[in-house]
Hints:
The complex is a heterodimer of chains A (364) and B (230). With 364 residues, chain A is of the alpha+beta class. Chain A folds into two domains: 2-216, P-loop containing nucleotide triphosphate hydrolases (Rossmann fold); 232-358, CATH 2.40.50.100. Helices cover 20% and strands 37% of the residues of chain A. Chain A has helices at 36-44, 92-96, 109-116, 131-143, 161-177, 189-195, 213-217, 223-226, 328-333; strands spanning 2-10, 13-21, 25-29, 51-56, 59-63, 68-69, 77-80, 149-153, 182-186, 198-203, 206-212, 232-241, 248-253, 256-261, 270-276, 280-283, 294-305, 310-317, 320-327, 341-346, 356-358. In chain A, the strands form four sheets. In chain A, strands 7-8-9-3-10-11 form a six-stranded mixed sheet, with helices on both faces. In chain A, strands 2-1-4-5-6 form a five-stranded antiparallel sheet, covered by helices on one side. The radius of gyration of chain A is 22 Å and the shape is globular. Chain B is mainly alpha-helical. Chain B has a single domain (6-225), classed as Orthogonal Bundle (MetI-like fold), CATH 1.10.3720. In chain B, 79% of the residues lie in helices and 0% in strands. Chain B contains eleven helices and no strands. Chain B has helices at 6-39, 45-57, 60-71, 76-83, 92-116, 120-128, 133-144, 146-162, 165-171, 181-190, 195-228. The termini of chain B are far apart. The chains are: A alpha+beta (364), B mainly alpha (230). Chains A and B meet through strand 7 of A and helix 6 and helix 7 of B.
Amino acid sequence: MIKAEIKHRFPDFALDVSVEADDGLIALFGPSGSGKTSVINAIAGLLKPDHGRISIQDRVLVDTERGIYVPPHQRRIGYVFQDARLFPHLSVKENLLYGQRFVSDGRDLGPVVDLLDLGQLLERRPVKLSGGEAQRVAIGRALLCAPQLLLMDEPLSALDARRRDAILPYLDRLHSESDVPIFYVSHAMAEVARLADHLVLLRQGRVTRQGLASELLSDPAAVPDIGVREAGAMITTHVAQPDAGDGLSELSTALGTLLLPRLSMPKGAAVRVRVLATDVILARERPVGLSALNILPATVETVHEGEGPGVAVALASGSDRLLARVTRRSARALDLTPGASCYAIIKSVSVAPQSVSASSREDQ
Amino acid sequence: MFGLGDQEWAAVSLSLQVAFWAVLVSLPLAIWVAHLLSRGDFRGKQLLNAVVHLPLILPPVVTGYLLLLTFGTQGAVGAILAQFGIVFAFRWTGAVLAAAVMAFPLIVRAIRLGIESVDPKLEEAAITLGASRWRVFTTVTLPMCVPAILAGTVLGFAKAMGEFGATITFVAAIPGETQTVPSAIYAFLQVPGAEASAIRLTIIAIVIAVAALLLSELMARRVTQRRVAP
Lengths: 364, 230
């Protein structure tokens, strides 16, 4: 359990947030300038807040009321910066082992090297690494200090799309194989949706919403905070048939069978699939003669009208929820009101490979 | 030509000895002050900066006279130190003090540039990895400014070798005790027929200065190469 209440006045900006989350991966999502980095800097001790109380499990790091302020180097909080910040005068191996000079109970090098595939890089100098490699080393360096919490500040944003896709599986592994809670700052919803257990939405120094990622992502009322083009529900499911013919894989969800482009996961593997709200078409009757392969029966749960021409519709079927974004005109024409039964249509090819990731949770 | 006389030998070895000790003594203090000036945030920082630079802008004779007033046997500090048997006036140790004071601002400036070129973000990263401020300094900041420290050392050494005004004012030019190469050259020029001695010392001064410069370049290059090597 991580609790952070932080109030701080900057010359041109006021931060006033209260975050409370169970362990796992907690994503801080918001536009640039919303105060995400300041929040984790306060947790790391790189920013001393005017007022605040920060605790991890039962360990109080900051309590301005009681005059508690643990110095940053004694906090045991790992920090992976946007720019890897490797020490240029040390080799990769020396960088990895840097924190071990100060802690007696650091982790063993071997497993971390394996987890992040660093074996080939150990003798190199940081200047000879690519951006993605440097970031993997930075993650390993932080992990080897055996931190109680790992902070990651947009660790992928300095990388190009290809490198980002190359490093995401490592983050999946880090998340599922290590029990360190992670605070992950990002303004890219694709990353957040793929990784987050808990989601905190920030805007102008304040928390607009927070909660379980699976619930918040499929909450139509949260769509304005997430962004209409970024909103989309997360379906947690498992692979029913990796090879369902024609280069497709079959997933079994509470909504029905979902056919997606071929996945590399084995049969039975738990996966998370993000379905963008703009990729879902709704129909009141089961359509025929349609190219889209996934036609899933569902019931309208809530309809959220924003200020624009679109409305967000939450659909439920069993334990799974879907989010669809349609025009207000269509919603009226189809009479989409809570309780209405309809069909959600998802083109298989509209779900990008990056939208599918291994799930750490076995809540099927 | 290179048959050095006793007085010339004494001047050369004294100069090397003085410059060596002057740099050795001022280096730790210079690193500390350079760090204060580049990373510190405290009242009186500008005053400290001005005091450090004073020997650079004052006429050396004035600095020497101030040293005499302060550290002379009758001086405020000198009188106290004398009770403990520490005497600077007219001793080779006084020449070390004068050279150290004169070289100090040059060493500080060089090292300060080096510290300022170390990205504070790297120091932040070190803190999050468990390093205290002191350990950040010794494991990140200091190793990263090795080239600057080498540059400062050579500059300080050259300055200490060449120091004349403050030294001769503070400790005079006693052959074998306080007569360094510059004051020996000056003395030889006052004596008819001693030009050969003056020229020999001049050549030696040039050789030592160039050798020190080349050595530091070589060491700095080796440090940088190690950093970019695979």
